[in-house]
Structures are given as C-alpha cells and as structure tokens.
C-alpha cells in the first residue's frame, strides 16, 4: 500500500495494511506502525451550486438490504434559505415519528456501528453482526432479553466468524453496561436458536492463541523483538496438548517471553492487558513450563536463559 518510516528498521520500508484488524504493519520486521485505523471507503462527491442555491445532488446513503426498503425512505423537508441547509417540516416530523417499520433495526445497527468503531473493527465485521442480529430479530423470540447484551453477542460472533476474534472482556468494554455473563448467555441463545432455524450448528470459527498475540503485545508496549518471539512461541505451542483456552495460552506465553527479556512485565499488568485472571495465567504457565525448551525460539533464549525461569 506504500511505504513509511519504521522506528525499528530505522528506515522507510514497505508497509502492509491489515484490513481486518485495522493495522498498518512494516513488511520487513512486522512492527505495527499504526493500529485501529478507520477503514475509509470512497464516498459520493457532491458539488454545490455557485449561485448559492441548494446542492442539486440527488444521491443519498448506500442501500441496506437488511431493511424493508433498502434504507431509502423518503424524508420530507423544506429548504432553509440559500445556504443549502434543510429543516424538517411539521409533516416530515410526523412522518418520521415511529412510522418506519425498521426503526428498531436502524437503532440496533447504529449501536453495533458505535461498538465496532470503538473496538477499531472494519465494516465487514460490523455488517456480519448486523446480519446476525437481523436473523435473531426475524424470529421474534428475543423480546424481553437484554438488548445491549444481545447486540454485543452478535458482534462477538461476527468477530469469530470473520477470523478476527475479540475476547468477551473486550466486547464487554463497549457493551453499554452489559456484563460478561449476560453477553455469554446471549451468545448461547443466538447460537442455539439460529442453529435450530438452519437445522445445523452455527459456524463460530476456530480461535487460535496467535489471533490475540499482536494486540495483547501492543497493549503492553512490548518491543518488536519480543513480539516476534512471542508470536513464534505461541504458534509452536499449538503442537502440544495444552488444554487451556487460546487466550490463556497467549497470556502465559507473553509472561514467559517477558521474563526472559530485560523488559519484564508484572503478572498484574499482563492480566490487565489480556483480560485473563492472574491465577489462570499461573496455571497455564505451569502447563507450558515442561515444553519451554521447544516452544521458545532458540534465537531468543538459550538453555542457560531458560534455567532462569521460575519453576511453577
């Protein structure tokens, strides 16, 4: 996509834009130069009339196939002078006061869009969450449930299906007060009911520890050297039967890697950055410890270095 100055390479290098994560990455060393970039797409260009009359453009927003009329409802308005501004007329206000059958969907989609923006998610994930919510809404069986939890669960499932998973804690942070427990229940409800409708299980996508590594390392401000080692280590760990969640393994690998570096991270800080409890990280470390000689890259730490790790 172009080039930019990389602080680790100390030169201008070619960069790659990860559209799913919103990250700008150095192609030579893998350093994240910019994270959570907004995915900007082309918009319609409009040209105002030089005479001062209203802008003659006749195109509105993009159609939305999930809405009854594609989202192309007519809004009645009256011009306000020659500045091109519009004020809703009384008739227009009456028209918009609850007559739109998709009003509930539109509000839900706006909430999903806000949550997506706060998490730095791209449009494909947001659109998938909208589709999931529309299917749930069509069943008319979700009434009485926590709406914020339901929308957050749709976004969680969408991230999984788009192979860019987020932790429940990350989703919870933008869920307007919905708790992890409520989001978890909503997720199970969606998976169950949509699965029954389709006659098959809802595909959730497989989570790997590596899916979270770059983001967690970025949260901790780790150097490119340690990020590279952690990424390799977590990938190698998949060869072993470590019966822990991918998120827990990622957190434990980060703990090991940082303990072998000059920039050691406290267990408390790793817990805050990953959302994994300190006790869970300790238990995962205990499971990984017997395999550290094979998991940790040899270029990062030798056998003597590994002996300095605390025995669990």
Automatic annotation (TrEMBL):
Protein name from the UniProt record: TFIIB-type domain-containing protein
Keyword Zinc among UniProt keywords: yes
Top-level division of the source organism's lineage: Eukaryota
Biological-process GO terms, alphabetical: transcription preinitiation complex assembly
GO cellular component, one term: transcription preinitiation complex
Domain TFIIB-type stretches: 2-34
Family label: Belongs to the TFIIB family.
GO molecular function: TBP-class protein binding; zinc ion binding
Short name of any one Pfam family annotated for the protein: TFIIB
Keyword line: Metal-binding, Nucleus, Repeat, Transcription, Transcription regulation, Zinc, Zinc-finger
PANTHER family, A to Z: TRANSCRIPTION INITIATION FACTOR IIB-2, TRANSCRIPTION INITIATION FACTOR IIB-RELATED
Subcellular location: Nucleus
Principal subcellular localization: nucleus
